[in-house]
């Protein structure tokens, strides 16, 4: 927790001593720091007091931490807020459903995913970026035809330096 305390201190000094208003990147850093440390209520409180309390990227960072630490209370509040702000965004539905599943609340997870479907919310397929000989390549996980047709060449991985 020493690094968390240090982060809190720097954040406090920034505003109180240096008179620097926290930007979204500073709040994001603190939400991420607190979330990774499992201090979800503190991260939620910080976000609620922030001028950026309605920023979806900050809410998503907090909701992701709730998924990692299985905090149903904060996850429910954050996901509800995200659904109010942007009901067509799939992330809040999927992450909250995952938290429900951790708590064996399968009916709630299923109901939430049904709500997502009823609202016409589509889950965006995952994508991965890989570098091959200093060239970026996009591997579209939703397009399995590309893999089956051999469009992506097999990777030769050399673990020697």
From TrEMBL:
SUPFAM superfamilies: TPR-like. It comes from the Eukaryota. Coiled coil: none annotated. It holds the Pfam family PPR. GO terms for molecular function: RNA binding. GO terms for biological process: RNA modification. Keywords: Repeat. This is Pentatricopeptide repeat-containing protein.
């Amino acid at each position: 927790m020493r690094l968390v305390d240090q982060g809190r201190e720097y954040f406090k000094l920034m505003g109180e001593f240096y008179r620097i208003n926290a930007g979204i990147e500073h709040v994001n850093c603190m939400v991420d720091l607190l979330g990774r440390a499992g201090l979800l209520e503190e991260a939620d409180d910080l976000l609620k007091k922030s001028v950026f309390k309605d920023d979806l990227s900050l809410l998503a960072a907090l909701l992701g931490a709730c998924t990692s630490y299985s905090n149903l209370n904060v996850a429910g509040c954050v996901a509800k807020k995200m659904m109010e702000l942007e009901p067509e965004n799939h992330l809040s539905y999927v992450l909250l459903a995952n938290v429900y599943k951790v708590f064996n609340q399968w009916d709630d997870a299923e109901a939430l995913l049904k709500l997502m479907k009823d609202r016409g919310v589509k889950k965006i397929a995952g994508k991965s970026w890989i570098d091959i000989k200093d060239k970026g390549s996009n591997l579209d996980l939703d397009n399995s035809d590309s893999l089956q047709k051999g469009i992506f060449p097999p990777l030769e991985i050399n673990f020697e330096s």
